[in-house]
Amino acid sequence: MWVPGAHFVTWFDGRVFRCDLKGGLTYFDFRNTAEYCRYMGGMWLFDLWVRNPAAPVTECARSITTTADATIITNVDDLGDVWTADDVMTGTTSKWLNLAYELTPSSETVAPDGWVDFTLTLKDGKTHEVASDITWDGYIVEPVDGYAPHKRLAVTNGVGRFRAQALGLQDGESMRMKINHRFFTSRAEAVVRVSADG
């Protein structure tokens, strides 16, 4: 579970404190984290985003949600930006703390049964610079339409590459590739149009 992009949510459901992996918390009801916590009558308290699984926890991005008049006792000099609870509960203010994923094909079109090279780039969610500190071999290539001979994708210094074939696809169809990892699906997706003109 301690993988790049993992998002852990600590929340109070009105009775007990819980810590859940975000994908598992909201997978079946399709709510965002804030909506789910509110639906359960609770409060979203603390988030932790794993960027580089080899780095210490202190380098993970963190978010603390409190009431406006709460006192926080800490030895951390800078707690970062201040957001109101109403802003946080929209579920949209913390996305920059995580990684951004970009899957780019080498060509927008491919001939039937032709090959395309794909590049997966991990980027800092805030700066959109390549996350060159991340090296991890647990990404999974999901060929929705088409064929990928290697299902496992290694990312080195924030970049990974693989090849896929438009095997059995005809003119006018699309080759579609997705990047997943064990606990999170659809990290990135790319579509390439199949054309006899290739």
TrEMBL record:
The organism of origin for this protein: Parasutterella muris
UniProt superkingdom: Bacteria
Protein name per its UniProtKB record: Uncharacterized protein
